[in-house]
Amino acid sequence: MPPKVLIIEDTESLALMYQSYLIPTGVNTKIAHTGQQALDALDEFQPDLVILDVMLPDMNGLDILSSFSTENSPQVIVLTGHATKEMAIQAIKLGASDFLEKPIEADRFRITVNNALKLKALKQTVKTYKTTYENGKYFDLIGSSRVMQSVYQIINSASVSKATVFITGESGTGKELCAKAVHLASPRSNKPFVALNCAAIPKDLIESEIFGHLKGAFTGAISNREGAAGQANGGTLFLDELCEMDINLQSKLLRFIQTGCYQQVGSEKETKVDVRFVCATNRDPLLEVEAGRFREDLYYRLHVIPISLPPLRDRENDVIEVADALFKKISKEEGRVYKGMSAEVKSLFERYEWPGNVRQLENTIRNIIVLNNAEFIEISMIPIFPSTSPIHNAVNKLNSVSPFNQHEHINEELNKPAKLNDKNQIEPLWVVEKRYIETAISICNNNIPKAAALLDVSPSTIYRKIKGWEESAVS
């Protein structure tokens, strides 16, 4: 959205001239000829910058300037044909960013306006950073470690731009939360944020999910459908697990990113949208390029502002801050009361490496909250960690049933030695996968979302596979 400039000038010809000076800059302008018109326009138009003439027919322009006392007030450039040193000093004291004496050259006028708008944008950026980064929290991202502060600073700097952000990090590090922070810190925060997981959508449906389709474009397309690109118009489109996208679709995505135009499946008409792209992957994108699974030109088109999310084990003492926030959040969701963690629990959380990162921590905390109705979290409530953990001996006497135990049971099933004597004993891979997933669901008492979390896949992936098995059985 272009900046808004309110021109307060009683002489109509001068007001129109100032307005014409600003046409090449692309700003949105409005004119007021009296003090009262100016006050009304300030409420309705809500400008980023005010060009203020001091001598108005019904009041002194400096009286309007003195009314700007809030942090959200616009920048002000004061104009007058009766300049004095005292008036300039007074205007600056009242908050004006600059002072110009009539007559004004077009280039000087545009430069002054541009500088004032840059100052406004900088103030807004600083304000946003101060209000969003409080007590170790930046939007929904939590942590005061130096590596996370560096991430916050990158997001804050990138937010005012439309440049593509490329987020990398291990599974469970919070890549979608990071993408949302980029969106919420940007001028697009009041527009849609649309997230699409490229790994959770079948290869033959992902083009339709991104670009939409027309009725009858393919079997099952019973109506027109707007894709994620259209839904995100004016806002942010987040493409998660981008390296999972089919290589043949990557060329269409590249063109969409370059031109902002796309075609719905089954349509010859091009649609243009204004979208900011944020993408993420838990793989090394350069290795994917070298392996031929990811287009090099798409990589360089997207890899404009890289953000590398650190694993939880490399975030100093953030695990305690994150755990405390999660205990409060989940306790509220489950109708429980949480007052704190014991020193032993904190020490345990800090020493464990959390291979599943924040997602694993969240699953562990939910397990604790659900199975223990206590206000204070003690060491005896912690689920058993895997035997590979360096702190296994500290908690191996605990008897709670946990996602870690469940994961071990599932792994026991998978790791049974394959006693194959001849080729007739070899099973199709999908049969082995089916049995493994069904085992996980059974161990989790038919809780598919919980089984999906342990298997590190989306619940929609499991539901889709179950549907496919059922359809195969019917046919």
From TrEMBL:
This is Fis family transcriptional regulator. GO terms for biological process: phosphorelay signal transduction system; regulation of DNA-templated transcription. Residues 4-117 form the Response regulatory domain. Coiled coil: none annotated. Residues 141-370 form the Sigma-54 factor interaction domain. Keywords: ATP-binding, DNA-binding, Nucleotide-binding, Phosphoprotein, Transcription, Transcription regulation. One of its GO terms (molecular function) is sequence-specific DNA binding. It holds the Pfam family Sigma54_activat. The modification 4-aspartylphosphate is found at D53. It comes from Pseudoalteromonas porphyrae.
